[in-house]
Amino acid sequence: MISVEELTKNYGPVRAVDNASFSVQAGETVGFLGPNGAGKTTTMRIMTGLFTPSSGDIKVDGYSILSNPLEVKQRIGYLPESAPVYLDMTVEGYLRFVCEIKKVPPRQRSEQIDKVVAECGLESVRTRTARKLSKGYRQRLGLAQALVGDPPVIILDEPTVGLDPTQTFEFRKLIQGLKGNRTVILSSHILPEVSMICDRVVIISKGKILAQDSPEALAQRLQSHSEFLLTVDGPEQEITADLESLQGIRDIRTVHHPVSGGVQFRVVADLENDPRDRMVRKILEKNHRLLELSVVTAGLEDVFLNLVTEEGGAV
């Protein structure tokens, strides 16, 4: 559906996007992640036809943003970080205006407005001017304008920035409602948000694409060791010494002493040498009680920090 091909964008001597390539399949929801100044917004603006690339190309549904810009724009709904609403227009009046500039056939405009108003939960404010809307409802209106015309691709640039927790929760539900029906690209600094919503992530830093995969697959590829939480009822020093003697154990340290009893340890082991059977046998041989054994999995935050620090590299 979307193919970003060796995309580069220069602003004088500054290279904002550096030979970036990635693809998004039809129906996917993809998170576009990177620190401030990484090139996310620039890439999105090129994708929507607002900026032209210095080199490379972006194709949407087979159409090039360079040679067929109108065909590309007709297939994209775009919500920038600040919702592009006219404050003196009513919700319905603004959406009717958007129908006109998107050239929705006149006979279909009322139906289109009814559809996006319902989809974005705007029924209760339909006749209200945008100036009187809360930040959350203005953002909903911004999403509604992106959905006008039923574009197959929706691009959302930091859509929950500035929303309170309740507004953020409700807006995330709206985005999740788009999944499967449309292809969605979502940029965000909120890593849990991306983990909850997106099927796949593309991580960019200093204009370069560092990784692209599902959050789970990225974590697995970057993980150089395995970690476990182990809670045992028994003498702390003795248990530590017993576990350190086992093959494949790299490190063991006490985390805390749970109120429920015992001692909780964090155990780091070789990735290719699963020590769980050996740990359990050793604990039972010493007549200690095993209260908990769980795997500690790397999350998207671990992946992100690993890649965008100086030590991180492309995968």
Structure write-up:
- This protein is α/β, with parallel strands linked by helices and 315 residues long.
- The chain folds into 2 domains: 2-220, Rossmann fold (3-Layer(aba) Sandwich); 224-297, Alpha-Beta Plaits (2-Layer Sandwich), CATH 3.30.70.3100.
- Helix content is 35%, strand content 30%.
- It has helices at 40-47, 69-74, 91-101, 106-119, 135-147, 165-178, 191-197, 215-222, 236-244, 276-285, 300-308; strands at residues 2-11, 14-24, 29-33, 55-60, 63-64, 76-79, 153-157, 183-187, 200-205, 208-213, 225-233, 249-256, 263-270, 289-296.
- The strands form 3 sheets. A 6-stranded mixed beta sheet has the order 6-7-8-3-9-10, with helices on both faces. Strands 2-1-4-5 form a 4-stranded antiparallel beta sheet. A 4-stranded antiparallel beta sheet has the order 12-13-11-14, covered by helices on one side.
- Helix 8 (215-222) crosses helix 11.
Core attributes:
315 residues, alpha/beta, Alpha-Beta Plaits, 2 domains, six-stranded mixed β-sheet, four-stranded antiparallel β-sheet, 11 helices, elongated, disordered C terminus
Short description:
The chain is an alpha/beta fold. Helices cover 35% and strands 30% of the residues. The chain has helices at 40-47, 69-74, 91-101, 106-119, 135-147, 165-178, 191-197, 215-222, 236-244, 276-285, 300-308, and strands spanning 2-11, 14-24, 29-33, 55-60, 63-64, 76-79, 153-157, 183-187, 200-205, 208-213, 225-233, 249-256, 263-270, 289-296.
